[in-house]
Amino acid sequence: MTLYKFKFMALLYTLLFFVLGPYAFSDDTQWAAPRTIDGHPDLQGVWANNTITPLERPEVFGDKEFLTDDDIAFLNRRINEIQSEGSDALFVDGVLEAAFSGEVVSYDPSTGNYDSQWMVDRTVHRRTSQILDPSNGRLPEMTREALALAQEYETRQIEHPADSWLDRPLTERCITFGGPDIWFAGYNSYWQIVQSKDSVAIIQEKIHDVRVIPIVDKPQLDRKINLWHGDSRGWWDGDTLVIETTNISEKSDLLHAVTTDGLLARRPGPKASERKYTERITRVSEKVISYQITNSDPGTYTQPYTAEVILDYAEDPIFEYACHEGNYGMTYILSGHRAQERFAREAETQN
Length: 351
Hints:
Layout: H1 3-20, E1 45-48, H2 69-85, H3 94-101, E2 131-133, H4 144-159, E3 190-195, E4 199-204, E5 210-214, E6 231-237, E7 240-246, E8 258-260, E9 263-265, E10 276-285, E11 288-296, E12 305-314, H5 328-350
Antiparallel strand pairs: 1-3, 1-12, 2-12, 3-4, 4-5, 6-7, 7-10, 8-9, 10-11, 11-12
């Protein structure tokens, strides 16, 4: 492809997106969403995020926003080859990385991992990143204060990994993966949406969290009341369901855990209670939903960012995620660390 043709196609894709919005990549732009008895677009059903599209655009793609047909054919071929090898399961960006590198890197080499035969088939979509804005497909820079807190948190984790259950991540304690949570592609990344006249319920498969979102006038919670998943209010903007969430607990993790400057940033920066999520959910075809979210987190990032995930209709129901706070796994994690401490003391005595 010549440079001129490449630039023309990139411009065409960009114009399609801005003119048609979430319908730009629907197979049928004349398709009309089914309606509930209340006249709203029917979003109900089970929806899956099994995409290989990474959150941030990999360097291999440069400024390329969309995959070509040849790219998609290559990735589908590589996915089939990887799955047929029967190697360790790959989550989130692992499939894309393995497709290009040819190397399958285990997600958990220390204790063993799922076999790939247990995993759901992954889907190739057009975008090279879920991040739409900034236009480089990358998360904004973190604030200096947020980086300092990330360093402090990592140091604490190294020095005191399991003094008590409070030192372990929220996900490991089976409290919550966050809300909204749909990001860990290939691992229980399913939603079930149920609608009524006055509210929309989103059931997240992981830790069976349910977000019940009023779509009628209802006062916001007092700013002093903060919740794990925040306080959400929804309304219809044409055929798009808009959900705005505030009052997010300072104890809640970041919307996206990221690695920056060698640090795994999981916890929010200062001003965590000022976070605001704005979601836009649009059914663009019989079996596709466009899900977009804008994250405004002034204490963590230098600017807001917007990400999009394509959710595909799933025929199967969501299944029980048997994870509850205080389960036997936590008992063994803590007892294992107590044993490590005992071994260390005994080694010091012998020396």
